[in-house]
Amino acid sequence: MKTSEMRLLSTNELQTKLDDTRRELMNLRFQVVTGQLTDTSRLKQTRRLIARYETILHEREQGQKQEGEK
């Protein structure tokens, strides 16, 4: 999913996707430890996806604070 597509989602949808992605990262870590994961690049992709979700949520939070100050 592209960042522009992520920005179109509601805050609740973003939070849900963030939670799901964090669970996926945990499962990937378990798979690495047990030797089941062969494509370790998925770890990096998943971490970056989590960062994108968190960045968008943080931007929205900052935007709300600025609107409240005006």
Distance between the termini: 34 Å
- What is the tally of beta strands? 0
Question: Stretches where pLDDT falls below 50 for ≥5 residues?
Answer: none
Q: What is the correct CATH architecture? A: Orthogonal Bundle
GO molecular function, one term: structural constituent of ribosome
Family: Belongs to the universal ribosomal protein uL29 family.
Protein name: Large ribosomal subunit protein uL29
InterPro entries: Ribosomal_protein_uL29, Ribosomal_uL29, Ribosomal_uL29_sf
Task: Report on this structure.
The structure is a single chain. The protein has one domain (3-69): Helix Hairpins (Orthogonal Bundle), CATH 1.10.287.310. The longest helix is centred in the C-terminal third of the chain and has 29 residues, at 41-69. The model has no long low-confidence stretch (mean pLDDT 94). It is mainly α and 70 residues long. The protein has helices at residues 3-7, 11-34, 41-69. The protein is built from 3 helices and no strands. 83% of the residues lie in helices and 0% in strands.
